[in-house]
Design brief:
heterodimer; A: 253 residues; alpha/beta; Rossmann fold; six-stranded mixed beta sheet; four-stranded antiparallel beta sheet; globular; B: 281 residues; mainly alpha; MetI-like fold; 12 helices
């Protein structure tokens, strides 16, 4: 195992008067899949959005503490550079509705100058769609608008869009919460392959303990803005130390 | 039939009739103008678009409406070029900074501009651009039309931008787009149909205006567009003058001109629908 992909020390986030994260300490090793679990309102999404500083978009947000991504302190970096370091997939599929399937994947690479030529771009789009396990379903209709795809396909398109920047880190916010079981398994397989074959670090919020068990090397439990338990998923699933984790695994919170 | 069903069908019939009553006037106008105007255009032939109107006396020839047509096209085009950038940029600012004091000022100003009778806009432009230079000009007419257009473009655009779901904007930032890129590539892209609708409605409004042109472009019918710094005719101005005259062939020309205006409207809406594809969320 390499160095940490994400290192968080005493992270506090408040929006207006409300403190959402109350001193988070966390290390996510590189090249792993980590699951972030916890009941609704515990701050999972907020934590994820700190890592690519999407949190900055909220009015009246205050962030303190140290957050390092691949060793770089992201609070001191150019915010756009921070966001380009990672790819993000959201809870509800949100492909850009006014762009074709192709452009949805290509836009990031185009704007950030990742691909130099049309051919390079074509190859990148193909690679990203293959990696998202969508290529075979859309290769003959790349010019179609995304609403022609099913919800699960749209979510895989969003995964491809995130991958097109060739990030070393993927952030996913309950990516399968609104997706049918078949598509869920496809996305999970895609994530597994990305870790194994591309060495990507994947940090995902999930509501489903089963998904964490199927997918994640590490699991982090947070509750009310604090980490209550973290460690290898197997350990946490088999012998949770914290009462709250036990309750969560039984589906009681 | 029980009372419930009776009530239901009564309701259906009433609603259908009311809906018909609402759209009927539109069809009536379209039909009436076509019936009155189309034969005139057919009779005059291609000359209707290339010739100047005839003298009111000693002739019953139809001639053409070329000065009015050229004036309407010129002034509408210039008014669009003047108003759309200003209005769209103002709307972008308002949508990005909804609580900024400048936004509040712009919003209040455009709202009230929407309510101002357009003849007042004509008078203001007269005082600013006609009186000081001592001449009526097509440019002054275009400026007056631009002022008429701005609140329409602004209001539609702001509304369209604000109704773009937040999740697309977040996704745009998520792939590292800068603020301007998000506005230009994502927000405006998703809202493109709404923005196009605002521009289309505003152009239609400008093409149909008479009052702001009375003291600005004034009208000039003996030549086909003398330039931006000369007085200019417009289709609406011409209809206004011709329909009030006692000359029968001028009345016919006015109907023909009304038909041409109607065709311009239909073309405008069709082109805008064609050009800007709908965005399905």
């Amino acid at each position: 195992m390499n160095g940490p992909a994400i290192e968080i020390r005493d992270l506090r986030v408040s929006i207006g008067e409300k403190e959402i994260l109350k001193g988070i300490n966390l290390t996510i090793p590189e090249g792993t899949i980590s699951a972030l679990m916890g009941p609704s309102g515990s701050g999972k999404t907020t934590l994820l959005r700190v890592v690519n500083r999407l949190i900055d978009l909220i009015d009246g947000v205050k962030v303190s503490g140290i957050v390092k991504v691949f060793g770089k302190s992201i609070m001191d970096m150019d915010v756009y550079e921070v966001r380009r370091m990672s790819g993000m997939v959201f809870q509800i599929p949100n492909p850009f509705p006014h762009m074709s399937i192709y452009d949805n994947v290509a836009i990031g690479a185009r704007v950030n100058g990742v691909a130099k030529s049309k051919r390079e771009l074509d190859e990148l789009v193909k690679w990203a769609l293959e990696r998202a396990m969508l290529w075979d379903e859309v290769k003959s209709r790349l010019r179609d608008p995304p609403w022609r795809l099913s919800g699960g396909q749209q979510q895989r398109l969003c995964l491809a869009r995130a991958l097109a920047l060739k990030p070393k880190l993927l952030l996913l916010d309950e990516p399968t919460a609104n997706i049918d079981p078949v598509n869920t398994l496809k996305i999970e397989e895609a994530l597994r392959n990305l870790r194994k074959e591309e060495g990507m670090t994947i940090f995902m919020v999930t509501h489903m303990p089963q998904q964490a068990i199927r997918l994640a090397d590490y699991t982090v439990m947070i509750y009310d803005g604090r980490v209550v338990e973290e460690g290898p998923t197997e350990e946490i699933a088999i012998s949770p130390r914290h009462e709250l984790t036990r309750k969560f695994l039984r589906g009681e919170v | 039939m029980d009372a419930r069903r009776l009530l239901d069908s009564l309701f259906t019939v009433t609603v259908t009739l009311l809906a018909l009553a609402a759209v009927l006037p539109i069809f009536h106008i379209i039909l009436y103008i076509t019936v009155k105007g189309l034969p005139v255009v057919m009779e005059a032939g291609i000359d209707f678009f290339t010739e100047i109107p005839p003298s009111p006396i000693r002739t019953t020839e139809l001639g053409g409406i070329a000065p009015a047509l050229a004036g309407t096209l010129f002034m509408t085009t210039v008014a669009t070029l003047l108003s759309v950038p200003i209005a769209v940029l103002a709307a972008v600012f308002s949508a990005e900074y909804p609580n900024h004091s400048l936004t509040r000022v712009v919003r209040a100003t455009t709202r009230s501009l929407l309510e101002v009778p357009t003849i007042v806009i004509g008078i203001v432009v007269f005082a600013l651009l006609v009186q000081p230079f001592g001449r009526f000009t097509a440019l002054a007419g275009a400026v007056a039309l631009a002022i008429v257009m701005i609140p329409y473009v602004y209001t539609y655009t702001e509304l369209a931008l604000l109704s773009v779901p937040r999740t697309y904007i977040e996704a745009g930032y998520g792939i590292g787009l800068k603020r301007a890129q998000v506005i230009y590539m994502i927000t405006a892209g998703v809202a493109r149909r709404g923005i196009a609708r605002g521009v289309t409605v505003a152009i239609a409004k400008a093409m149909g205006e008479t009052a702001p042109l009375l003291f600005t472009a004034f009208g000039a019918r003996n030549m086909i567009f003398g330039g931006p710094l000369e007085p200019s005719d417009a289709i609406t101005l011409m209809i206004y003058v011709f329909i009030q005259s006692p000359f029968e062939h001028w009345h016919k020309i006015a109907w023909g001109a009304a038909f041409v205006l109607l065709v311009l409207y239909l073309a405008l809406f069709l082109i805008s629908r064609r050009l800007v594809k709908e965005v399905r969320l």
